[in-house]
Design a protein that fits this description.
binds pyridoxal-5'-phosphate; alpha/beta; four-stranded mixed β-sheet; Aspartate Aminotransferase, domain 2; 14 helices; seven-stranded mixed β-sheet; Aspartate Aminotransferase, domain 1
């Protein structure tokens, strides 16, 4: 790891958690320089829903490159973009009766969030937006302001303003509907909360600890937005593109967001790509008003179209994701129920599942041990207390079960070690 330590900025993060040099990858398996294999339950934090180097998607990309298709094109009209838009419309939007315009912001998730927030403020002329406890929307200034974790916002070096945080579903306990609170403060001019331009929400908070909002809460949130004429932005960057079992995570909920942000697995191949879906009447951008150099990632258009063609023409992929999600959930529940020595619980939807260890140190020990035994996962939540499992959606059932069984053994081993160490410490202190 010498050159990385010597030359790469101190800001690097994931390579500290997984200190090895990776070389190749295929499907749900990563391989390092020494040829050691790892099962990937991280998937680039949900970027590789269709697996590493998906062979069919790769073929389309190689063919495009071979034919001298345009790689960089600013936001010029290109054949790759034309075909992507036609496919998105035909396979995703039309069958779901969704009517959206498509904006290509810069290629990362935070670029999409910036564009969405800026547009909402421009349309309404209002300054603030509502975001939620434990929400995560990226680290550039506008989206960072909507990211809940204090240490992350502090890195801005200036006050992150223009955001009011409201408790997410379940934050105040299962019996308290925090949308009622939101409705109350927006109804009352004496509440101190200004009428916001928008509400930005994740249907399942990924980085925040796999917190799953109930459908009823999300529907109520939509009603509150409609009542107060506030724009509803669903940030589907982590849990969109099939992660929960449907292309958009809000489909099963039955809400109709005004703006949707997508990124991560959108390109289908791990290439940087994001977009903003905007209800047509809200597409109030002036030409060039939110422009930039990288607004037409043609390679990503090609691979994203391939992913839609391959996986979203019918329900079979959705069905398999739901089925594998159920396998994950039942195995994690078995892990939680078997370990009475620790307070473990499970939550998630589809193939994003979290094992809440209620203890950041324990979760950290588990993922580090997992890495040493060939399984890659990370933690989430304010204290890093939740083990977040995000395997590629295309993983075979056999490999999924192999990874889950490995996790089961590792959790048992780490908890046993932790408990016996506590007993030894207790004995020594007597
Ligand atoms: C819900 C959500 N929004 C936004 C982002 C930011 O995306 P990026 O890291 O590509 O800027 C993330 C990244 O994890 C995310 O999970």
């Amino acid at each position: 790891m010498n050159i990385f330590n010597q030359l790469e900025s101190n800001v690097r993060s994931y390579c500290r958690l997984f200190p090895t040099v990776f070389k190749t990858a295929q499907g749900a398996i990563l391989e390092n320089k020494e040829g050691q294999k790892y099962i990937d339950f991280l998937s680039g934090v949900g970027t590789l829903n269709y697996g590493h180097n998906n062979p069919q998607i790769k073929q389309r990309l190689l063919h495009y490159l071979e034919s001298d298709g345009i790689v960089h094109g600013l936001d010029l009209a290109t054949v790759a973009k034309e075909e992507f838009l036609e496919t998105l419309d035909a396979i995703i939007l039309k069958p779901r009766q969704l009517n959206y315009k498509v904006q290509f912001p810069g290629p990362t998730g935070t670029n999409a969030v910036e564009a969405a927030l800026k547009l909402a403020r421009k349309i309404t002329g209002r300054e603030t937006v509502i975001a939620f406890s434990n929400g995560y929307h990226g680290v550039t200034l506008g989206s960072l302001a909507t990211t809940a974790k204090a240490s992350q916002r502090a890195s801005a070096g200036i006050p992150t303003t223009g955001v009011t945080f409201i408790p997410y579903d379940g934050y105040l306990g299962a019996d308290i509907d925090t949308t009622e609170y939101l409705d109350k403060v927006l109804s009352d001019v004496g509440s101190g909360v200004s009428l916001p331009a928008a509400v930005i929400v994740e249907t399942i908070q990924g980085a925040g600890g796999v917190n799953v909002a109930s459908f009823e809460w999300l529907r109520s949130l939509e009603r509150v937005c409609r009542k107060h004429d506030v724009i509803l932005i669903v940030d589907d960057i982590q849990v969109g593109c099939g992660r929960t079992g449907s292309f958009f995570s809000f489909e099963q909920v039955g809400i109709s967001p005004d703006i949707v942000t997508l990124s991560k697995s959108l390109s289908g191949f791990g290439l940087p790509f994001s977009l903003v879906l905007i209800k047509p009447e809200l597409d109030q951008w002036k030409p060039g008003q939110h422009s930039g150099t990288f607004r037409g990632p043609n390679l990503a258009f090609v691979t994203a179209k391939a992913a839609l063609d391959l996986y979203w023409q019918d329900d079979s992929f959705s069905t398999s994701v739901k089925h594998k999600g159920a396998i994950m959930q039942s195995c994690l529940e078995q892990i939680a129920n078997n370990n009475r020595l620790a307070d473990l619980s499970v939550r998630g939807r589809g193939m994003i599942q979290g094992l809440d260890c209620k203890d950041g140190n324990l979760a950290d020990k588990i993922i580090r041990t997992a890495f040493s035994k060939g399984l890659i996962m990370e933690t989430a939540g304010a204290q890093g207390q939740v083990i977040r499992c995000l395997p590629p959606l295309t993983v075979s059932e056999e490999l999924l079960e192999e990874g889950l069984n490995l996790l089961l053994d590792i959790v048992n081993q780490v908890i046993e070690e932790t408990v016996s160490k506590k007993l030894v410490d207790l004995g020594a202190s007597k």
